[in-house]
Amino acid sequence: MPITEVEGRRLTLSNLDRVLWPRTGTTKGQLLHYYATVADTLLPYIRGRAASFVRTPEGVEGQRFFQKRPPAGTPDWVTVEETLRHSGEPMDQVQINDLAALMWAANLACVEIHVHQWPAAAPERADRLVLDLDPGEGRTVIDCCRVALRLRERLAEDGIEVWAKTSGAKGLHLLAPVRGASSASTTAYAKRVARELQSRDPGAVVATMAKAERAGRVFIDWSQNSARKTTAAPYTVRAQAAPTVSAPLAWDEVAAARDPAELVLTLHEVPGRIAQHGDPLAPLLDPGRAGTLPD
Protein backbone atom coordinates (compact mmCIF):
# COMPACT_ATOMS: atom_id res chain seq x y z
CA MET A 1 0.00 0.00 0.00
CA PRO A 2 1.36 3.43 -0.89
CA ILE A 3 2.51 5.69 1.91
CA THR A 4 2.39 9.43 1.44
CA GLU A 5 3.13 12.48 3.56
CA VAL A 6 0.54 15.23 3.89
CA GLU A 7 1.46 18.33 5.83
CA GLY A 8 4.03 16.34 7.79
CA ARG A 9 1.63 13.47 8.54
CA ARG A 10 2.35 10.00 7.17
CA LEU A 11 -0.69 8.34 5.64
CA THR A 12 -1.05 4.81 4.32
CA LEU A 13 -3.46 4.86 1.39
CA SER A 14 -5.32 1.71 0.43
CA ASN A 15 -7.37 0.33 -2.46
CA LEU A 16 -7.13 3.48 -4.56
CA ASP A 17 -8.39 1.57 -7.60
CA ARG A 18 -11.52 0.35 -5.80
CA VAL A 19 -14.61 1.51 -7.69
CA LEU A 20 -16.92 3.31 -5.29
CA TRP A 21 -19.44 4.42 -7.94
CA PRO A 22 -20.03 1.41 -10.24
CA ARG A 23 -22.34 3.27 -12.61
CA THR A 24 -19.66 5.83 -13.45
CA GLY A 25 -16.52 3.82 -12.69
CA THR A 26 -15.35 6.46 -10.20
CA THR A 27 -12.68 5.16 -7.83
CA LYS A 28 -11.58 5.89 -4.30
CA GLY A 29 -8.42 7.40 -5.73
CA GLN A 30 -10.54 9.91 -7.63
CA LEU A 31 -12.43 10.69 -4.41
CA LEU A 32 -9.15 11.45 -2.64
CA HIS A 33 -7.97 13.54 -5.57
CA TYR A 34 -11.17 15.60 -5.48
CA TYR A 35 -10.93 16.28 -1.76
CA ALA A 36 -7.25 17.22 -2.08
CA THR A 37 -8.04 19.58 -4.95
CA VAL A 38 -10.89 21.43 -3.22
CA ALA A 39 -9.50 21.29 0.33
CA ASP A 40 -8.65 24.99 0.56
CA THR A 41 -12.22 25.87 -0.37
CA LEU A 42 -13.96 23.13 1.63
CA LEU A 43 -12.07 23.18 4.94
CA PRO A 44 -13.22 26.63 6.17
CA TYR A 45 -16.81 25.33 6.20
CA ILE A 46 -16.05 22.32 8.42
CA ARG A 47 -12.97 23.29 10.44
CA GLY A 48 -13.66 23.38 14.17
CA ARG A 49 -16.97 21.51 13.84
CA ALA A 50 -17.77 17.99 14.94
CA ALA A 51 -17.90 15.81 11.81
CA SER A 52 -20.10 12.84 11.02
CA PHE A 53 -19.59 10.63 7.98
CA VAL A 54 -21.47 8.46 5.53
CA ARG A 55 -19.03 5.62 4.84
CA THR A 56 -19.28 3.23 1.89
CA PRO A 57 -16.21 0.96 2.13
CA GLU A 58 -17.37 -1.35 -0.68
CA GLY A 59 -18.96 1.35 -2.82
CA VAL A 60 -22.19 3.32 -2.83
CA GLU A 61 -24.23 0.31 -3.95
CA GLY A 62 -22.94 -1.79 -1.06
CA GLN A 63 -23.32 -1.49 2.68
CA ARG A 64 -23.18 2.02 4.05
CA PHE A 65 -23.33 3.44 7.54
CA PHE A 66 -23.53 6.81 9.26
CA GLN A 67 -20.66 7.25 11.68
CA LYS A 68 -20.49 9.86 14.42
CA ARG A 69 -17.93 8.33 16.76
CA PRO A 70 -14.24 8.35 15.80
CA PRO A 71 -13.43 5.45 13.44
CA ALA A 72 -11.26 2.67 14.83
CA GLY A 73 -7.59 3.52 14.58
CA THR A 74 -8.10 7.29 14.44
CA PRO A 75 -4.59 8.81 14.56
CA ASP A 76 -3.69 10.83 17.63
CA TRP A 77 -3.08 13.88 15.43
CA VAL A 78 -6.73 14.01 14.32
CA THR A 79 -8.65 16.36 16.62
CA VAL A 80 -11.22 14.56 18.77
CA GLU A 81 -13.56 16.56 21.00
CA GLU A 82 -16.47 15.68 23.24
CA THR A 83 -19.97 16.56 22.01
CA LEU A 84 -23.44 15.60 23.22
CA ARG A 85 -25.71 12.87 21.90
CA HIS A 86 -29.46 13.30 21.41
CA SER A 87 -29.88 11.89 24.90
CA GLY A 88 -27.60 14.56 26.33
CA GLU A 89 -24.84 12.04 27.08
CA PRO A 90 -21.28 12.93 26.04
CA MET A 91 -19.79 11.43 22.90
CA ASP A 92 -16.43 11.91 21.17
CA GLN A 93 -16.38 13.11 17.56
CA VAL A 94 -13.57 13.99 15.19
CA GLN A 95 -12.97 17.32 13.55
CA ILE A 96 -11.63 17.65 10.01
CA ASN A 97 -9.42 20.67 10.53
CA ASP A 98 -6.72 20.24 7.90
CA LEU A 99 -5.78 18.52 4.66
CA ALA A 100 -4.15 15.56 6.39
CA ALA A 101 -7.32 14.78 8.36
CA LEU A 102 -9.42 15.19 5.20
CA MET A 103 -7.22 12.71 3.32
CA TRP A 104 -7.32 10.29 6.25
CA ALA A 105 -11.14 10.37 6.26
CA ALA A 106 -11.43 10.03 2.48
CA ASN A 107 -9.11 7.00 2.58
CA LEU A 108 -11.62 5.35 4.93
CA ALA A 109 -14.29 5.90 2.24
CA CYS A 110 -15.92 8.60 4.36
CA VAL A 111 -17.68 9.79 1.23
CA GLU A 112 -19.98 12.30 2.89
CA ILE A 113 -19.06 14.86 5.55
CA HIS A 114 -21.82 16.32 7.72
CA VAL A 115 -21.47 19.08 10.34
CA HIS A 116 -23.58 20.98 12.85
CA GLN A 117 -24.70 24.58 12.45
CA TRP A 118 -22.51 25.53 15.41
CA PRO A 119 -18.75 25.31 16.07
CA ALA A 120 -17.43 22.90 18.66
CA ALA A 121 -16.02 25.79 20.67
CA ALA A 122 -19.53 27.19 21.21
CA PRO A 123 -21.89 24.23 21.58
CA GLU A 124 -25.45 24.94 20.46
CA ARG A 125 -24.64 28.59 19.68
CA ALA A 126 -25.63 28.70 16.04
CA ASP A 127 -23.61 30.73 13.56
CA ARG A 128 -25.52 29.37 10.56
CA LEU A 129 -29.14 29.00 9.61
CA VAL A 130 -30.07 26.26 7.16
CA LEU A 131 -33.23 25.54 5.17
CA ASP A 132 -33.34 22.23 3.32
CA LEU A 133 -35.65 22.30 0.30
CA ASP A 134 -36.80 18.82 -0.66
CA PRO A 135 -39.05 18.24 -3.70
CA GLY A 136 -41.99 15.97 -3.06
CA GLU A 137 -43.32 13.47 -5.59
CA GLY A 138 -44.04 15.23 -8.88
CA ARG A 139 -41.67 18.12 -8.12
CA THR A 140 -37.99 18.64 -8.93
CA VAL A 141 -35.06 20.77 -7.89
CA ILE A 142 -36.36 23.42 -10.31
CA ASP A 143 -39.40 23.85 -8.08
CA CYS A 144 -36.97 24.14 -5.16
CA CYS A 145 -35.23 26.96 -7.01
CA ARG A 146 -38.48 28.91 -7.24
CA VAL A 147 -39.09 28.48 -3.52
CA ALA A 148 -35.46 29.40 -2.79
CA LEU A 149 -35.86 32.74 -4.56
CA ARG A 150 -38.94 33.50 -2.49
CA LEU A 151 -37.15 32.54 0.71
CA ARG A 152 -34.24 34.78 -0.24
CA GLU A 153 -36.60 37.74 -0.49
CA ARG A 154 -38.39 36.85 2.73
CA LEU A 155 -35.19 36.46 4.76
CA ALA A 156 -33.85 39.74 3.35
CA GLU A 157 -36.83 41.48 4.95
CA ASP A 158 -35.32 40.52 8.30
CA GLY A 159 -31.79 41.49 7.28
CA ILE A 160 -30.70 37.87 6.74
CA GLU A 161 -28.55 37.18 3.67
CA VAL A 162 -28.78 33.66 2.32
CA TRP A 163 -26.88 31.60 -0.25
CA ALA A 164 -27.71 28.39 -2.05
CA LYS A 165 -26.06 25.07 -2.75
CA THR A 166 -27.30 21.85 -4.25
CA SER A 167 -27.95 19.15 -1.70
CA GLY A 168 -26.12 16.73 -3.98
CA ALA A 169 -29.28 14.64 -3.95
CA LYS A 170 -32.70 15.95 -5.04
CA GLY A 171 -33.01 19.42 -3.60
CA LEU A 172 -31.32 22.60 -2.41
CA HIS A 173 -29.85 23.89 0.82
CA LEU A 174 -30.03 27.55 1.78
CA LEU A 175 -27.45 28.80 4.27
CA ALA A 176 -27.20 32.12 6.10
CA PRO A 177 -24.66 33.40 8.62
CA VAL A 178 -26.23 34.52 11.89
CA ARG A 179 -24.94 35.97 15.14
CA GLY A 180 -26.08 35.83 18.73
CA ALA A 181 -28.45 32.91 18.16
CA SER A 182 -29.03 29.67 19.99
CA SER A 183 -29.84 26.54 18.07
CA ALA A 184 -33.32 26.70 19.59
CA SER A 185 -33.97 30.26 18.45
CA THR A 186 -32.62 29.54 14.97
CA THR A 187 -34.88 26.51 14.71
CA ALA A 188 -37.89 28.53 15.86
CA TYR A 189 -37.19 31.29 13.34
CA ALA A 190 -36.67 28.85 10.45
CA LYS A 191 -39.90 27.06 11.36
CA ARG A 192 -41.82 30.34 11.50
CA VAL A 193 -40.60 31.44 8.07
CA ALA A 194 -41.27 28.02 6.54
CA ARG A 195 -44.83 27.99 7.88
CA GLU A 196 -45.36 31.53 6.67
CA LEU A 197 -44.49 30.49 3.11
CA GLN A 198 -46.77 27.49 3.42
CA SER A 199 -49.64 29.72 4.49
CA ARG A 200 -49.04 32.01 1.51
CA ASP A 201 -48.90 29.18 -1.04
CA PRO A 202 -50.09 25.87 0.43
CA GLY A 203 -50.34 24.31 -3.01
CA ALA A 204 -46.61 24.67 -3.64
CA VAL A 205 -44.97 24.67 -0.21
CA VAL A 206 -45.24 22.47 2.89
CA ALA A 207 -43.50 22.91 6.23
CA THR A 208 -44.90 19.96 8.18
CA MET A 209 -42.87 16.82 8.82
CA ALA A 210 -45.49 14.31 7.66
CA LYS A 211 -44.24 12.73 4.43
CA ALA A 212 -47.79 12.12 3.27
CA GLU A 213 -48.21 15.91 2.96
CA ARG A 214 -45.29 16.45 0.57
CA ALA A 215 -46.58 15.10 -2.75
CA GLY A 216 -46.73 17.84 -5.36
CA ARG A 217 -45.05 20.37 -3.07
CA VAL A 218 -41.62 21.49 -1.91
CA PHE A 219 -40.92 20.61 1.70
CA ILE A 220 -39.01 23.29 3.64
CA ASP A 221 -37.16 21.34 6.29
CA TRP A 222 -36.43 23.79 9.11
CA SER A 223 -35.50 21.08 11.62
CA GLN A 224 -31.83 20.78 10.60
CA ASN A 225 -31.16 23.84 12.76
CA SER A 226 -31.65 21.66 15.81
CA ALA A 227 -28.51 21.44 17.93
CA ARG A 228 -28.38 17.66 17.51
CA LYS A 229 -28.78 17.59 13.72
CA THR A 230 -26.20 17.89 10.98
CA THR A 231 -26.27 18.90 7.33
CA ALA A 232 -24.15 17.81 4.39
CA ALA A 233 -21.23 20.22 4.27
CA PRO A 234 -20.55 22.53 1.33
CA TYR A 235 -18.47 20.70 -1.28
CA THR A 236 -18.94 17.28 0.28
CA VAL A 237 -19.37 14.40 -2.14
CA ARG A 238 -22.63 12.45 -1.74
CA ALA A 239 -23.11 8.71 -1.73
CA GLN A 240 -25.56 8.78 -4.64
CA ALA A 241 -25.59 6.67 -7.80
CA ALA A 242 -23.22 9.22 -9.35
CA PRO A 243 -20.48 11.07 -7.40
CA THR A 244 -22.52 14.23 -6.99
CA VAL A 245 -21.35 17.14 -4.85
CA SER A 246 -23.28 19.47 -2.56
CA ALA A 247 -22.15 22.36 -4.73
CA PRO A 248 -22.66 26.08 -4.03
CA LEU A 249 -24.55 27.99 -6.70
CA ALA A 250 -24.66 31.62 -7.74
CA TRP A 251 -28.11 33.17 -7.43
CA ASP A 252 -28.24 33.81 -11.17
CA GLU A 253 -27.80 30.06 -11.69
CA VAL A 254 -30.72 29.38 -9.35
CA ALA A 255 -32.90 31.92 -11.16
CA ALA A 256 -31.98 30.68 -14.64
CA ALA A 257 -32.25 26.92 -14.02
CA ARG A 258 -34.84 25.19 -16.16
CA ASP A 259 -33.64 21.57 -16.33
CA PRO A 260 -32.76 19.51 -13.22
CA ALA A 261 -29.74 18.11 -15.08
CA GLU A 262 -28.19 21.60 -15.01
CA LEU A 263 -27.85 21.34 -11.25
CA VAL A 264 -26.32 17.86 -11.09
CA LEU A 265 -22.67 18.61 -10.38
CA THR A 266 -20.11 15.88 -9.75
CA LEU A 267 -16.63 15.66 -8.30
CA HIS A 268 -15.33 15.71 -11.88
CA GLU A 269 -16.81 19.15 -12.57
CA VAL A 270 -16.70 21.10 -9.31
CA PRO A 271 -12.93 21.79 -9.17
CA GLY A 272 -13.16 23.45 -12.58
CA ARG A 273 -16.08 25.58 -11.40
CA ILE A 274 -14.04 26.78 -8.45
CA ALA A 275 -11.01 27.52 -10.62
CA GLN A 276 -13.10 29.49 -13.10
CA HIS A 277 -15.67 31.22 -10.92
CA GLY A 278 -14.42 31.03 -7.33
CA ASP A 279 -16.67 30.09 -4.42
CA PRO A 280 -20.18 31.63 -4.56
CA LEU A 281 -20.78 30.60 -0.95
CA ALA A 282 -17.75 32.50 0.41
CA PRO A 283 -19.84 35.31 2.01
CA LEU A 284 -21.16 32.70 4.47
CA LEU A 285 -17.69 32.75 6.07
CA ASP A 286 -17.60 36.53 6.51
CA PRO A 287 -18.61 37.49 10.08
CA GLY A 288 -19.50 40.94 8.80
CA ARG A 289 -22.32 39.44 6.71
CA ALA A 290 -23.96 37.70 9.68
CA GLY A 291 -27.49 38.83 10.48
CA THR A 292 -29.33 39.01 13.78
CA LEU A 293 -32.54 37.03 14.00
CA PRO A 294 -35.63 39.07 14.86
CA ASP A 295 -37.30 38.50 18.21
From TrEMBL:
Record keywords: Ligase
InterPro entries the UniProt entry points to: LigD_pol_dom, MtLigD_Pol-like, NHEJ_LigD
Listed transmembrane segments: none
Residue ranges occupied by any DNA ligase D polymerase domain in the UniProt entry: 27-280
Region described as Disordered: 276-295
EC assignment: 6.5.1.1
Sample GO molecular function, one term: DNA ligase (ATP) activity
Taxonomic superkingdom: Bacteria
UniProt enzyme class: ligase
NCBIfam families: ligD_pol
Full protein name: Non-homologous end-joining DNA ligase
Top-level taxonomy: Bacteria, Bacillati, Actinomycetota, Actinomycetes, Kitasatosporales
